[in-house]
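stuck on this one:
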Amino acid sequence: MARIDLKNLSIHFGGFKAVDDVSLTVNDGEFAVYLGPSGCGKTTTLRAIAGLVSATSGDILFDGKRVNDLRPSERNIAMVFQFVSLYPHLSIAENIIFPLKARGVAKADIARKLDWVTGIFKLGDDLRRYPSALPPGARQKVALARAVIREPAALLLDEPLSAIDEQFREEMRWELGHLQRELGVTTIYVTHDQREAMSLADRIVLMNHSKIVQVAKPDTIFFQPSSVFAGQFIGSPSMNLIDLVPVSGGFRLGASEVVLTHAELPEAVIRNPRALKLGVRPRDVRLVSGAGHPLPVVDVFSVGREKYFAFRIGDTIHQGFDTLTDSTPGGVVFAPDGLMFFDAETGMRLETGRIAA
């Protein structure tokens, strides 16, 4: 296994900065997930680690050794892509052992390793079949087995589940996390799917506009996002973002008449001289009977077993969690520990000492 260090890594394509001065350490045996919108630089970073893209500047190190000038075949990594590329004329067993045969590994060692990965991936019943006979999820398992059988120092996965039907994706996600823990191989996984990132990662590497925005455990990014982008990218439904307007004794919520008083706010917010925005996740906004802020409710809807409601502040629609058991008109309540505050200009979160949970 390997520790992977990126030091001030930049990758430019002409005048375009695909990766801009990125530094990161992925620890030995860690499952790190690169998450972000399309075009943010996560796949380019992965390809640079693999040696498929050259760094414009900066260094890539495996266990402290600089590998910038090593070919992909010299880096002892395995990579699995979004679309599976198995050899259709070879059986599943032949596909899996192909990398070993190409390297001239002894037959006895090949047989031993095939038994090993067959047991891990539970592919024993499929070894004599051909790729066309397997569903997409099973073909992706074969591609993973072929990557793992080489016992690489690092496993690089580029959206490996995105081409699989949703009904198989949940199962594959669980299996992949279980397999990585069993193998203990250093793994870097690229996705734009926050559910995959939150369920698989030891740490999430959140990227936007070619830069790393935040690196943290999934719960930390959810409850303590470093910025407006991190707060709104993680979580579904997305975090509500509301302007705070300073008034006597507190802050008014945007264009509404609702005021959060100083007694309801952290000292860091009261004393902050800059314009702020309030961030609050729908799970921390409740529709209750009786007392509550008189914000107009425009819709109530269900997502599975959960009921949500939509409310309006000015021209913007926000969402919250409906706790009413009947149609009695109610008010909107914000959970104090769920309130986050962001600098309106920089988008960075203000440290208040509160941690939402």
